[in-house]
Amino acid sequence: MVDKINNLKFKTKNVSVFYGSKQAINKISLDIEEKQITALIGPSGCGKSTFLRCLNRMNDVISNCSVNGKILLDGNNIYSDEIDPVLLRAKVGMVFQKPNPFPKSIFENIAYGPRIHGIGNNRAELTDLVHHSLEQAGLIDEVKDRLDDIATGLSGGQQQRICIARAIAVNPDVILMDEPCSALDPIATAKIEELMSSLSKSYTIIIVTHSMQQAGRVSQKTAFFHMGDLIEYGETPKIFTQPDQQKTQDYITGRFG
Amino acid sequence: MIDKNIDQLKRLKLRKNAEMRLKVYGILSISLALIMLSTLMISIGLSGYSALQQAYVKLEINVDSKKVLDEKGGFSNQKALLVNWDGIVSNSFITNFPEITKRSEKRSLRALMSSNAGYELRQYFQKNPDDLDENITIWLSASDDFDQYMKGRFNTSVDEKDRRLSNQQLKWIDFLAMEKISKLKFNTSFFVNADSREPESAGILGAVVGSTLTLTITILFALPLAVMASVYLEYFAKPGRLTDFIEVNINNLAAIPSIVFGLLGLSVFLGFFGLPRSAPLVGGLCLGLMTIPTIIIASRASIRAVPPSIKDAALALGASRMQAALHHVLPLAAPGILTGTIIGMAQALGETAPLLMIGMVAFIIETPDSFTSAATAMPVQIFMWSDSAERAFYERSSLAILFLVGFLIIMNSLAVFLRRKFEKKW
Fold it and tell me: How many angstroms separate the first and last alpha carbons of chain B?
């Protein structure tokens, strides 16, 4: 299945995260390939979301959080002083667990990112960009006639796709997804999964999920986290059929977690 | 079917009774509050409504234009100063009683006209110089005792020598009222004048304008400072001892007696910066200091009520913290901030104590026209009137209270309206 040679997008070395004195993840070293879907699985509290939030420095917002180790994006350490987290986040977008569109119009939701980054200087360019992003998010047919409606009035699945379109609109390299389907019904979930597969042609996607079926369906690589440690990382089919570690085996067969 | 044993039924009954009692207590306390409020409003209303009318006396007057006009035919203030307007008024008034010749009687008759009636006459001719040399009929204010007697608020059961009006004077007033020479008419002077020593010409306008100017300064000063402070505390301040210390002190500040802010204003604004006394500028700053903690507390609560996911969404798109705060969180928190601000303003509007300290309790007969001119505020005006000896000031302070309460109701409804209007649905 993976026959092409992929470039590495993210390289992380010995990443540890502390919340105050409590260690959340312990020396994670993980390489993430470009234009692939990498799934992070593991029981609640295992540190997978924490790890994900390190990749675009969203942990900076949490006051007592400290990150050790190295995270390289295209060879640059994102925690070095030269990197502005604001610019980093434009390159590494994020979609959250609960759909969180701004309580503004659909158009404004998508146009906000480009606007603050100075992409799309006039109304026509912005409109094109909005349409293009919605098209990529597979939402254009559903909302093209009501771009001025408040985005929070849409269904949960549509809201989540608005959030994906919003992330795409600033033209990132990487999209981080933190359990994007956990608040959605199976049909909306299927749509998002479909969307992820098509987006992976142009974007590197890293998804945290509780659903092992989802990880199996969408991802090319899977990492299993447990208690802040990275237990196993490899090709998804291998992780789900012949894991090297007993813990992985126990988790995917539902013996704990 | 659910089987219930006796024990369960007993407990169920006890619980229902307890709920019932709580409900009754609630209804009782609300009705008590409503009764007290309506008693208050009704009693103020009853004593204040009569101030809407004022006794006026009809006079026929002819003033020679040569006495007041300059060469160009304009009204000359200098010449007008020399005219005995009071004399003109009393002479015309006395013609209603041709039988009176004794000087003492004439004096007590003259006392029935307001001592400001001459001034009113002069004002009239200043505005209408064309009426000079004409025989005109004009309604001028009667004295406050006259006014109170016509409204039935003059206590005649008191012994004559302890009263402000003699039996003779009462008879004259009865005669004037019967002849329709004096009448109760709408009290315009209450709405267009500033304060006066004479109740009949004292008005609320000066205090209303003073309050408006003061509150303008208050909101301009307090709102930006408080909003900036709360955004900083919520978004930028690193949690720690210092932030905790600031937070505790802001909460303490909200509980400090308002007169302390007056003392602060006295020593800082007047003493150190040398700003003018009695000025709405200084009053507004003092009230602003007093209002800032209220607005900060309300703003922080409403900023915190905005779901953090909105902030996360903005940050994840590459917005800076400031952009996330300004573009997304503040607009969503605005209804709450506005409500807090208006409640703070309403509190400031009713505040007297700090204004006493910075000299806004002065007797000011001019309606203030700038932020630095001497002014007074509505609650201070009420305080001063309620302190006056004249009975007529009593009804005027009641009417002024109604005015103040009206203002407060308008401001609070504005808060409700704005909140409804800007509240976003999720």
Answer: 41
A21 membership: H or E segment, kind and range = none
Maximal CA-CA distance, chain A: 57
Q: What per-residue string of b and e applies to B335-359 under the rule 16 or more CB within 10 Å gives b?
A: bbbbbbbbbbbbebbbbbbbbbbbb
How close A77 comes to chain B (CA, Å)? 18
User: A223 - beta bridge partners?
Assistant: A40, A233
| B326 Cβ under 8 Å from any chain A Cβ | no
The three-class DSSP label of residue B407 is helix
With contacts defined as CB-CB under 8 Å, which chain A residues touch B315?
Answer: 58, 61, 89
The one-character DSSP state at B73 is: S
Residue pLDDT, tens place only, A195-227: 999 898 889 999 999 888 899 999 999 999 988
- Complex ipTM value: 0.87
Which of B36, B18, B17 has its CA nearest to residue B28?
Answer: B36
Q: Which amino acid is at A90?
A: A
Residues on chain B touching A167 (C-beta within 8 angstroms): 316-317
Nearest to B349 by CA among B287, B260, B278: B287
pLDDT at residue B224, rounded to an integer? 95
Share of chain B above pLDDT 70, in %: 98
- In order of their start, the domains of chain B are 52-186 (no CATH), 205-422 (1.10.3720.10)
DSSP 8-class letter at B152: T
Does residue B423 carry a pLDDT above 80? no
Return the amino acid letter for A145. Answer: D
pLDDT in tens, B263-312: 999 999 999 999 998 999 999 999 999 999 999 999 999 999 998 899 99
CA distance B341 to chain A (A): 24
Q: Which of A95, A59, A93, A96 minimizes the C-alpha distance to A79?
A: A59
CB pairs below 8 Å between A and B: how many?
69
Amino acid in the structure at residue B118? G
pLDDT digits (tens, 9 = 90+) for A168-197: 998 899 999 999 888 888 888 898 899 999
**How far apart are the C-alpha atoms of A83 and A91, rounded to whole Å?**
12
Q: What is the mean pLDDT of chain B?
A: 89
Query: Mapping DSSP to helix (H, G, I), strand (E, B) and coil, where does residue A157 land?
Result: helix
Separation CA A190–CA A186 (nearest Å): 6
- Per the CB < 8 A criterion, the answer to whether B423 and B339 are in contact is no
d(CA B122, CA B425): 61
pLDDT given for residue A3 in this prediction? 45
- Residue B339's nearest CA partner among B224, B228, B422, B418 is B418
| Residue of A112, A129, A175 best to disrupt the B interface, most CBs of B under 10 A | A112
- pLDDT tens digits along A6-43: 688 888 888 899 988 888 888 888 888 888 899 999 88
Residue B181 neighbours by CB under 8 Å, 6+ apart? B57, B58, B96
Supply φ then ψ for residue A234, to 5 degrees.
-175, -170
Q: Cβ–Cβ of A102/B328 closer than 8 Å? A: yes
- Are A214 and A220 in contact by the 8 Å Cβ rule? The answer is no
Burial string for A194-230 (b: 16+ CB within 10 Å, else e) reads ebbeebbeebbbbbbbbbbebbbbbbbbbbbbbebbb
Q: How far is CA B255 from the centre of its chain?
A: 24
Q: Is the minimum CB–CB distance between B423 and chain A shorter than 8 Å?
A: no
The domain limits of chain A are: 8-252
Q: Which residues pair with B138 in a beta bridge?
A: B59
Instruction: For domain A8-252, give the CATH number.
Output: 3.40.50.300
